[in-house]
Amino acid sequence: MNGSEKPAIGVIGVGWVGLVTAGCFAELGHPVVAMDVDQAKVELLRAGGTLPIHEPGLPELIDRNRERLRFTTEMVEPLDAARILFCCVDTPPTYSGDADLSRVEAVVGALPEGGGHALVMKSTVPAGTGAAIRRSNPELVYVSCPEFLKEGSAVRDFLEPDRVVIGSDPGAEWAADAVAAAYEPLGGRIVRTDVASAEMIKLASNAFLATKISFINEIANVCEGVGADVTEVARGMGLDPRIGNKFLQAGIGYGGSCFPKDTQALKQLAGNTGYHFQLLTSVIEVNELQKRRVIAKLSKHLGSLVDRKVALLGLAFKPDTDDMREASSLVLSARLQGEGATVVAYDPVAESRADQLLPSVELSETVGAAVAGADAAILVTEWPEFGELDWAELAGRMANPLIVDGRNFLDPGALRRAGFTYEGIGRPADGGEPVAGG
Ligand code: UGA
Predict the structure, then answer these.
(1) pLDDT tens, 205-249?
(2) Residue numbers of the domain that contains 280
(3) Which distant-in-sequence residues (6+ apart) come within 8 Å of 239 by Cβ?
(4) Ligand 1 in contact with 206 (CB < 6 A)?
(5) Is residue 437 assigned to a domain?
(6) Nearest ligand 1 atom to alpha carbon 381
(7) Distance CA 403, CA 415 (A)
(8) Taking a C-beta distance cutoff of 8 angstroms, is the pair 12, 87 a contact?
(9) pTM of the full structure
C-alpha cells in the first residue's frame, strides 16, 4: 500500500448488505475483496451482467468501481488482502424464532488464529452474540457495526448515513478506529460504544420502527370505526417533532427480510432472558392481523369470495425491490385462495421470484391483463407506476370495479370518479358496514 491508497477491506457474504457494502467501500477508494460461498452468484458478479438483486444505483456503482472490486469463493483471498473483514452473511429466523447463526459461526471458524484480522459484524445478530463468539474465540478481535440501510435506497443510505454505530470491547480499539476511519468520509455521526449496546441499538431501532407501523395501523382501524381519515391523523401527529412524520403510513402491514425477523428475534431474546416483551408481542400480532383485514374489506362488498377473481397489484414487500421475503402478498394470496378466490397478480420486477414463491398465482404482464374480468383489485405495493394508470380504462375491464388500496397510495376521489368502489386503510369507505374486529 502506498501513502495515498486506502486499506483493503474484506467482505464476507454478498447478499444485499454485503454487495452494497462492497460497492460503497470501493466507491470510497478501498480495494475490496468480496467472498461468498455461492459459486453461481460469484460468477455472475465477476461476469459483470445483471446483479443478483434489484437495487437502484447499485449496478452503476459496481461497474464504476470494477477495478477495485474482486469477487471470490475462496476465504483465503480476503484473509490475504485485508485485516478488516465485514461479516455480511444472513441470519434467518429458525423455527424457535431465534436467529440462525450457523453462517456467522462458519465465518468465525474460517478465521486463522493470530492472523491479525478483525471481524466486523454487519449481519443482524442477537445482543450477546459478540460476547459469545469472544468466549469461544478469546483471541478474536471483534467489532459490531450494525447496518441501517433500507432496501430500495440502500446505496444512498450507505453513502449518507445518519449514524454509524461502532461497538468494541477492550483490546479491539485499533479495529474500531479503522472502521471509524473507513466511514469518516461519509460525514454521518459516529457512535462509539460497547459491543452489546451496539447490537441492541440495531434490534431496538427496528423494533421501534415496527412499533410505529403497528401503532398507526391500529389507529387506522379505529379511524374506520369513527369515520376519521388516518392519513389526516398521521399528518397532524407527525408535525410534533417528538413524534415525527416518518413511518406513520398505515397499510396492510410491514414485511421484508428485516422487521418480521428482527422483531421476532428480539422478542425471543427477551424471552430467553426471562422477560416477556409484551409490547413487541402485540406489534407482531397486529401486523399479522392487518394483512388479513383485507379479506373482510372484500367480503363486505362481494359476500363470499368463492370463484371470485382478485388481482394483486404489486408483490414485492415494498417498491424499488424485487424482494418478496415476508411480503404481505404471500399471506394475502394464500388467504384469498383459502377463501376460494382465484388470484392473478402483476409486479413490475418481482415476477421471477413470484414464479417460485406463488406457483398457484397467475402472473400477468400488465396491470390491464391482471384486472381484466376481476371482481376486485388490491394494491399491495405502492409502485410509482400505479399512480399514473388510466384507472377509468381499467375500471371498464373489470367485472366489478372494486379496489382495496392497501397502501393508501391512490387518490380516493379520483378513483371514485373513475368508477371504482374505493376502500383504503383507515379512510372513509364506500357503503356497507365498517370492518369489525381483527
Ligand atoms: C428496515 C429498516 O428501515 C432499516 O433501517 C434496516 O437497516 C433494515 O430494515 C434492516 O434491518 O436491514 P427495510 O426492511 O429495507 O429496512 O424496509 P423499510 O423501508 O423499513 O420497510 C419495511 C416495511 O415496512 C415495508 O413492508 C413497508 O411497506 C412497511 N412500512 C414502512 C409501512 O407499512 N409503513 C410505514 O410507514 C413505513
Answers:
(1) 999 999 999 999 999 999 999 999 999 999 999 999 999 999 999
(2) 205-423
(3) 245
(4) yes
(5) no
(6) 28
(7) 9
(8) yes
(9) 0.92
